[in-house]
Amino acid sequence: MMFRSGPFMNTVVTLTPNPAIDVSTSVARLEPIRKLRCAQARRDPGGGGINVARVIDRLGGDVTAVYPVGGATGRLLRRLVDREGLRSVTVDVREETREDFTVLEESSGTQYRFVMPGPVLDDGEWQGCLYALGAVGTGAGVVVASGSLPLGVPDDFYARAARRALQLGARFVLDSSGAPFAAALSEAVYLVKPNLGELSRLVSAELSDDASCVDAARSLIAAGKAEIVALTLGHRGALLVTAEGAFRATPIAVKVISAVGAGDSFLGAMVWSLARGDSVLDAFKYGIAAGSAAVLAPGTELCRSQDVHRLLGEVVVESL
User: Fold this and answer.
1) How far is CA 145 from the centre of its chain?
2) Integer angstrom CA distances of residue 221 from 68, 189, 227, 241, 318
């Protein structure tokens, strides 16, 4: 384990068990067999929790990112994180950190995203990530766990992280899917950010309209699985559901350059706002502004602070 900086006086700690280097480029047209001449590649540090931390840091929040690194790509990932001035704690693993890549087809404006599975972590390695979370999380107000789990990591990894956050006295925020997502909801989760497909699979129901989505979110809250559900709906906007009410945000009309990172930008801005003491509804508005700002940036760049604050005034939220 490598402690990158100190001392740690964190408001937010993010946990990314399966980080990546996100490579983005473009070609004139995708075709089989032929060599395709790509534009200059862009490389950004990636993985859900790292992206959330990048957004929080850009907005001026106090954040530390915890993530494993392995091999040459792991060393590059750490350099990319350091280049952004983001404070981090890394856990050394044997296998190479993954690379994901996004290709823009210029002729159609269509993006193609290729996501690799990542390394296999042994018991000591994934447990080291939880140890690192506990080591730096003292005093944190929020712990954010986000992204897929690498091979070798048990489905209850995020449930264990939620218990660790509770021991630290921090609120636990989760953005994941499938069995790890479901397992974590047996613990004390403050906020979850599923998309429509993830929530539909979780409740085993087709969610065809706002009413069914709100009912599904309220079922999680009533069962004590989460206090807040922030449901992202892509081009249809987002819903916020709490025990006190439900709200819909309509999407902001912007020119989409890249849809990559919109969800992470949404969550990062929400957490940043909550961590500084804003209301849940105000945090939701910041999330909408950041998600919209992310699509203005090319490749995997995520939202820019100035765009978030500029778009905040255009966010329209109505009570359901």
Assistant:
1) 8
2) 32, 10, 6, 9, 20
DSSP 37-52: -PPPPEEEEESHHHHH
* Positions of the chain with pLDDT under 50: 1-10
Q: How many helices (H) and strands (E) does the chain have?
A: 10, 15
Q: What is the pLDDT of residues 307-316, one digit of tens each?
A: 999 999 999 9
Three-point CA angle 117, 121, 123, nearest 5°: 150
* pLDDT confidence of residue 1: 41
Q: Which residue is it, tokens 């604050």?
A: 309
How confident is the model over 248-293, as pLDDT tens digits? 998 888 887 777 788 999 999 999 999 989 999 999 999 999 999 9
Query: What CATH number has the domain bearing residue 152?
Result: 3.40.1190.20
Query: Are 126 and 157 within 8 A, CB to CB?
Result: yes
Q: Which of 210, 264, 278, 282 is catalytic?
A: 264
Q: Which residues, listed in sequence order, are joined to residue 27 by a DSSP beta bridge?
A: 105
Active site residue 62: no
Instruction: Give the number of domains in the chain.
Output: 1
**In angstroms, rounded to a whole number, what is the distance separating the alpha carbons of residues 19 and 77?**
8
Q: Which residue range is the domain that position 253 belongs to? A: 2-30+37-319
CA dist., res. 120 & res. 126, Å (int): 10
